[in-house]
Amino acid sequence: MKLTLVCRAVCVLALISGALGQAPAANPASSSPVPYSSVSELNLLLSDLDQASRNTQQDLSRLRVEKWKTDSNTKRGSQADADSIQRNLQSALPEIANRLRNSPDNLLATFEMYRNLDALYGVFNSLTESAGAFGSKDEFQSLQNDLGGLERSRRAFADRMENLAGSKETELGNLRAQLQTARAAAEAAPQAPKKVVVDDTEPAPAKKPTKKRSPAKKPAAPAPPSQSAPPAQSSPPQP
User: Are 107 and 161 in contact (CB under 8 A)?
Assistant: First the structure.
């Protein structure tokens, strides 16, 4: 049952993630609120689990493992199991419960709670068997009752996880139908002709100025020979 639930939950989450990656981002304000019945169911489960946790912590604190009729190695192992369970009930379990209260229909958080309870049940069952074999009758009876409460919570969260997985599968089917409808509408819509817009705002490239050829210079005309003034006539001698 556990493997089936785990595989089913993981597959649903993978499919939803892939579909949401193809779909447009949803507006958080438009997301549908969590149904009141789901919140009420979760609050009842967490209340029962909290009561079982408090009873278990009280009974674990009354254990006298050092007085058990067994070897020291077994005593150390049983005491380590009791301490591990106490730490989980005081730290890890309340943190997961708070995440669930903030997001009641979160499938991952629900699976995290189930996995934690399943791990707790395995260790607690071993400790209870050791108490029955080596401890007092009262210790064994107390732990046996606590183990029953833990088992009821584990099964309840397993059922809730299965219901959430089915709900997510329905949401995924609706999402696929919406995607197919949108794609069909997009393909059927007439495509507008493409318009080619020519941007003529850019200035034309400047033309390189053409250099005008200067006219060839004519050779200078030879200067006319200079006419020397006639020699001045000497006046005749006076008588």
Answer: yes
